[in-house]
Every structure is written in C-alpha cells, then in structure tokens.
Amino acid sequence: MIFELVLALMIAFLAIAMPVPAKTGSTIYTPERVANARHNIERYKWASDIRDRTVANADHFANQPDDFLWELVTPQDIPRGIYVNTEIGCPKCGKAIDKFGNYPWKCDVFNIPWKITCPNCGEVFPKNDFGKFYESGKDSNGVFRYDKADRSLLYNTDHPDPNDPLHTYGVDDSMGWKDDKGNVYRFIGYYGHFGIWHAVHAALSNLRDAYIYTGDPRYARKAALMLYRIAEFYPEMNYDVWAERGFKNSDGGSGKGKIYGRIWETSLVDGFAFAYDAVYPALDDPQLLDYLSKKTGRQVTAADIRKLIEKNILHEIHDSILNRKIEGNEGMYQNTMTIAAITLDEPGTTDEWLDWVFANGDVRHNGKLGGNMVNIFNEKVDEDGMGDEASPSYNSIWRQLFRSINNYLNLYPRYNRHNIMGNSKFKKMFEAPVRLICIGKFAPHIGDDGNTGAPGLASISASDLIYAYRTFKDPEFARMAYMLNGNRADGFRGDIFDAEPEGIADKVEKIVKEQGPYVLKTDNMASYGCAILRSGQGDNQRALSLYYGRNMGHGHKDTLNIELFAYGLDLTPDLGYPEYAMSDCASRFEWTNNTISHNTVVVDKQKQSDSTLGTSHFVVEGNGASAAEVAADKPYPQASLYQRTVAMVDISDKNFYVVDIFRVKGGKEHLYSFHGAEGEVETEGLNLVSQPKGTLAGENIEPYADLGFKTGHYDNITGYQYLYDIRRDSHPADQPAITYNIVDTWHVLKQPEDIRLRVNLISPPGEVILAHGDPPRNKPGNPRRLQYILLPHESSKSTYVSVIEPYTGSRRISKIERKDEGDTVTLTITTTSGRVDTIVSALKPNKAGRFSVISQENGKSEVRLKIP
Fold it and tell me: Are strands 755-761 and 768-773 parallel, antiparallel or unpaired?
C-alpha cells in the first residue's frame, strides 16, 4: 500500500515537472492568413503559379520515403563547413574552380549522397564510401558517433589495394583529407553544410508552404517528422567544436555557432520555427504518430511532439541568442528572437522574449542582455537611414529584417509594449537606397558590395517600395516604386496572404498621374557620407558618386573614392565583394579592401586608417553643371589635408565631362590611383617602358606574393604586389591621356556601343605608371583584369588634376589648359563646338568664390555654377 502510494506520488510529480506545450494554435500562419492564401490561389493566376512551383519543389521531398527524410537530419558528429580549401581549390584542377563562385562544389543528396562534385573538372570527392563509414558509426539509437565508426572502411574505393599509392587519396573520415603537402580538403564538412542542412532547410520551407497552399496533410507529416528529428539533435549541435578544428562557417570570426556559424544560423532556425507554426494543426496525424512511435520505441503523442520542439528548438534558440551562439548582423538575431517568441506563444514567456528584443544590448559574462533595438535606431542608424556597415548591401539586411520584425509584431496583437513603427528612421531606411540609385541600373559599390561593375540597386526593389507605400501611407514611395519598375505599375500587388492583394497598381498609377514621376537629382547623404552628382534623362543619364563615409567593418579603405556611371554602364567600377570575407584572406586586406585598388589617393604607401565621416563643403546642382567638395576625416593622420573636388559639366543632352581635383598635404609620398572598366587602353603623350618582370612592389616580387600577411604583420601592407604588367614613363608630356575602350562586361546594353573613357592627366607631378590589377577571381562574370593609372609623387603636397571624358563616337573636347595660383586651380576647357568653360577651384574662399563654372559661347557668358 505504501509502495503504491509512493509510486502514485512519483507519477504525479513527474507529470507536474514535465514541460507542457505552450502553444495552442498557429500564430504566424494563422487560420485567417492561410484561408486568404488559398482563396487567392483560387482566383488569381499569379497565386496559383506560386502554389504550383512550391508543390513541384516540395514533391522532391514528399515523394521520398519517411526514413529518407528522417536520416537526412544528421547529428553533431557530422561537421558543417563552407569551404573545401580556399587556397588550393580542387585537388585535381586547382584554382580553376574559382570561376564558379565562393561555394562552387555541387551536392546532390538524392542521387550522389556523401559526395561533392567539382563543377569545373567533374571530379567527385571523397573517394571513400563515407555512407558505409557513417552507417558503421551509429549507436543503438541510430545516431552517428565518430568514435564508433569502422576505420577499416576508410580507403579509396577505386584503389582498394593497401599497397596502391592512391589507396588513401581523397579519403575523408569527416575531419578532412590531408594531401602529401599538408593541404587539408574538407569534403564531408562542405557536404554537411551545403548538402545536408541546405536540403533540410529547403525541405522544411517547401513542405511547409505546400501544406499551407494545399492543405494536403502529407506535406505537414513529412515536415513534422523532420522537425522531431531536428529537435532530438539540436541541443547538442555545437559549431564551436568544428571551428576549433579548422572548419570555416559564417561566424564572423567568433568561432561560435550551433549547426552553422552564428550568423547564418539565424535564417536556418527561423525555418525551423516557421515550419513548426505552419504544421502545428496537423501534429495529431495518425500516420505521423505511428511512424514516430516506431522510430522511438515508445508511444508518441501530438503533445509529445509539441513539447519536444518547443523545449529543444524554440527555447534552445532563445538560450543560444543570449549566450551569443546565435547572433549576426543587426536585425538577424532580433528577428530570430521575435519569430521564436511569437511561434512559442506562451503567456509571460513570449512577452519576456519580445521585451528582450528592445532591451539594452550590453554584453556581460553571462551573455547578451538585450536585442538593443531602441539604441540601434538612436545610435547606429544615421539620419539618412543607413546603418553603420558602410556597404549598402549589408545595410539593406538591417532594413529587410527590421521590416520582418515589424511584420511579425503586427501579426501578434497580444504584445504592444514596443514597436518599430514609432521611429522615424525606419521610414528613412526605405528612402536611403533609392537615393543611391545611379542611371536607373546601379548603385555605388561601396565596401563589400556586389561584383565588379555589375548592375544592382543596393538590394532595394519596387516591391520593397510598395511595402513602404502601404506601411507608411506616403505617396513618395509609390512614385519611387513606379520609377524602379520601369515607369509602370504593372505587377504591383500585395502578398499571397493578404485578404485583397489586388488594386495597388491602380492607386500607384493615380498618384503618378497626379504628382508626376519621381526624378532623382544631385544629392548629398551627409550622415552616411555619399554625394552623387546627376544629370541627363533616359538613356542619357549620368551620375558621379563621391564616398566619404565609414571605411570600417564591411567597408573598404576607400575614403574619397569616385565611381562614374554613364552610357548605361559603370565606367569606373569598384572591385566590390572580396574573394572571401574572412580574416585570413590575404587578397581581401592587401588588395580588394585596400586603398590602392580604389579611385583615390594613397599616402606613404599605406592603407588608410579607420575613418568615419568626412565634411562636405558643398554638393550643389547648377545650370548644366553640378559639383561636390569633401574633406576627409583624417584617413591618414599625417595628412593635414585630404580633399577632393569634383564637377560634372554638361556639353549637350548626351555629352559631358568630369573635373577631378584631389589635394593632399602631409606625408612624404602620394600616389593617385585610378582605374576604368574592363577594356584595353590607348595612350597619348606617353613613352611607356615595360618592367621586365615582377610587380609594382619590385621586379623580383611576383603577383600576389606573401609579403608578411600570413605572419600577421600586415598593418602597413601596400598592396603593390597585386599590380603587375608594369609600364612607366618617367617624363610624361604635360597632358598625357589614357583612353579606355570600354567593354560591356555584364551585357547591360541592348546593343553594342563604342564607348570610350578618356582620362586627361593635367600636368601630372611625376611619372605615369600603367599596371594591371585583378578583380576578385571567384566571382562569376567579373572581368579578368583592369587597367590602373598610377601617379606617384614624392612630396608632402600634391594637387592632382584630371579631366575625365566619357564619349561615344568622337571627342567633344578640343583643348584643356591649367593654371595654378597658390592653392587655386583654374581650368579652361574648350569644346569642339567652340564653347569655353572656365572652372575655378580655390582651397579657401576668395573674392572670386570657392568654386565656379562659367561658360562663354557666341560672345555670351553664363554662370553655370558658383559657390561663394
């Protein structure tokens, strides 16, 4: 009797102690939103097309046996890495694989499991049967344990004889294969990331959406069994272990993460939460419960599934964010916490987690105290609506994820203590990327951003602006969206989950008809640090950007870099995103991010120091001319002056030129660096002598040579070893010129055009050097090389003056004259039509003003622009 009483009390205690599922219904994919989606699918073709594409993708997974999806989810002992070997490339074809991108290896979990294939040479690795090795290492619960696996299976199956010299070639036990030179190739780690977990993510996303759009329980059942298996493994997932063993992932150099590095982990676990919320109503499916009961050897109920997922996934996400194993760029981890909290939907706990999103973000020994959203808007988002990442692409992540947080909070009316809509900078975050648009196709490639010369709009789209229009009720966004959509409203609509997604196009058309199209003009983003001069219309648009903002983080050491857009192309492209955004990538720091690779000036053969925001003296638009002048914020501490003055002057509706005056005071040696787009060059006024071998760093120093980077001594890197095919003229003419025959690298133009970019060097202070430099080599489509113009000057004071002349057909400038009086530069430019332009630039304001453009033609004088 006593025993029975004790047993009953124990059972009662365990029942109380066991966690119970908090969630009672879907809170993201609510019944109302699901009904809207299915109704829209019935009445709109665009919605049914979405359904059809999703179902086709989902069926790749839904048609697989349940055991396939169960086994697809792997435990901690299978590593996750995003590179095989960045220095060598493929064991067979080497660096030829780079032309296929950063993550080039092909994975196929359906047809070639546990293998990756080189897209260049077709070689398949690893050479051992890792599948058998994996099966041999499973414990009594069917979980792979590395230490249990049969190492006798680790041999090249094409060379099974132990005496064969290739017996161990390409064999990976999951820790990587080391060749006879000590190079490590991490085949299974790559497969673990891009094969297994990419497939898991794709499966959950497509099965989730297919269930929502169709209501077919088969899709929910397949997703649910995968979620259950993930929940069994997720608490023990620990990327830190793999980082210590040399595997790279998206960890921002922290060595922290769960399945992935802590940055990309955010989007992966978002998918787990979304899938749980979507399939929640179907977790009592008899086939699902029967399958899980058989796999686990005990009776599994719907409540068991919910408890396991909430404890081992949602609560684990929360805890991992606090201990910084899940983090990322601003917006990433805050968005992940928001999704986890709303998916959990537990009274008290959800409010607590959402409060954390907005709480102070200080870091203590016991973790991160809050998501810092209030302070991010107050301190990190500037008055132009840009974050502190420099790169427009990275700043766009903030906007996209803050938008996501706002959306999910709107879906959860039970929480009302904080919101994002109350901050005016949130709206500016949608305006900012529009202000960066140049000639309708481009935005300046600032920092880690895009490919060399490729079109792109800083990750802003017409649909983003339609969202902004609907959210902020500001018709300016409707006009912006219309402009980005090719000056039409076709295709504008809401989301598939909206009750009434149509009708937006008519509203936009009405606004544009009443208020006119949106037109971008000369602009200065003074808080972000980017001035853009604009002129022309339609196909004759041109723009010149001058960047003077942050050069840290995902920025480059590119203060006062210029980029010119005209004739439909980026004529002076930034190199863009580096080969690898890793701390051990030499080419990133020595070249792509370095000052010398940009259109700016190097002082004392050094990269620029960290710099935040320069001072714009003026950014103005006049009558057929616009100009900007910016003094940098001490990118070189030894330089008391580091200032650039640029002007864009119209000759006709189509033709124009750019005046560029760069003044430097301080230091002992200056180097003006300039490069145009891809294309061969022609020269005038130069007698170039080729350097027999080597690079700008010296005849005996080969391209890409390691001059100390790998040993950690790279604070004073020059990047000179990345410039090769050196040609020099030590005594150039007074006005040498280099003309680029521009190549349409990215096939932007509708038809080929003969576009030239002539760079007139007006009284260069010393020798003129031409050299080749390479854009990042693993970005598909990038030009092979670019031609650099280099003007070294051993002096503490330099005033570099050039007239940049883009044209098609024939030149429109017949004569250029320069006259210096102290620190004042006067240029007289005569066009082929006989117009004479006088441009005066004074270092300090004088009686004639600080800057002016005055034209004389047919006996008449016209002040196009004047800065007092």
Answer: unpaired
CA distance 247 to 81: 5
- Specify whether the CB–CB gap between 507 and 368 falls below 8 A: no
Cβ burial 296-310 (10 Å sphere, 16+ → b, else e): eeeebebebbbbbbb
Q: How far apart are CA 829 and CA 812, in angstroms?
A: 10
> What tokens were used for 705?
């040579």
Residues 6+ apart with CB under 8 A from 661: 644, 645, 646, 799, 800, 801, 825, 841
Output Rg (C-alpha) for the chain, integer angstroms: 31
Beta strands of 147-205 (E only): which ranges? 177-178, 184-185
- State yes or no: pLDDT of 488 exceeds 60: yes
- Category of 701 on φ-ψ map: left (φ > 0), alpha (ψ -120 to 50) or beta: beta
Q: What is the pLDDT of residue 717?
A: 86
Q: Which parts of 519-561 are beta strand (E)?
A: 523-525, 530-535, 542-547
772, 723 Cβ separation under 8 angstroms? yes
pLDDT value at residue 707: 87
Rounded CA-CA distance 652/837 in Å is 13
Q: Cβ contacts of residue 667 below 8 Å, gap of 6+?
A: 603, 604, 636, 638, 639, 796
Per domain, the residue ranges of the chain are 95-185, 418-515, 523-674+732-766+790-823
Per-residue burial over 773-802, b if 16 or more Cβ lie within 10 Å, else e, is bbbbebbeebbebbbbbbbbbeebebbbbb
Whether 347 shows a pLDDT value over 70: the answer reads yes
pLDDT, one tens digit per residue, over 153-186 is: 999 999 999 999 999 999 999 999 999 999 999 9
State the first-to-last Cα distance of the chain, in angstroms, to the nearest integer. Answer: 102
Q: Give the model's pLDDT for residue 712.
A: 66
Burial class (CB in 10 A: 0-12, 13-18, 19+), 629: buried
CATH topology of domain 523-674+732-766+790-823: Beta-galactosidase; Chain A, domain 5 (2.70.98)
Q: How confident is the model at residue 362 (pLDDT cuts 50, 70, 90)?
A: confident
**CB of 74 within 8 A of CB of 195?**
no
- Which of 11-25, 198-212, 433-447, 712-726 has the lowest average pLDDT? 11-25
CA 113: distance to chain centroid? Answer: 30
Angle between helices 217-233 and 286-296 (to 10 degrees): 30
The string of DSSP letters for 788-808 reads EEEEEE-SSEEEEEEEEEEEE
Report the distance separating Cα 785 and Cα 7, nearest Å: 78
